[in-house]
Design goal:
Elements (H helix, E strand, L loop, with lengths): L6 H19 L11 H9 L3 H6 L9
Helix pairs in contact: 1-2
């Protein structure tokens, strides 16, 4: 698994994932808020399956 999530993309995924999970735990969102696990996991791993399938990457390229 080559990393394909980098920089700002990673930060946004982690913050969004944590926000969705926290809102669900506090009762502000129904059960669908647990979908926050997906962006949180992809942000922490630095790898996103759809990015890999589409050949897309937000990581800086090495020269």
């Amino acid at each position: 698994m080559t990393k394909n999530v980098g920089g700002i993309d990673k930060i946004i995924r982690i913050v969004l994932g944590l926000a969705l999970i926290a809102a669900t735990l506090m009762g502000a969102l129904p059960v669908w808020g647990w979908i926050g696990i997906v962006p949180l996991a992809t942000g922490l791993m630095g790898w996103c399956p759809p990015y890999a399938i589409l050949g897309f990457s937000t990581c800086k390229t090495k020269n």
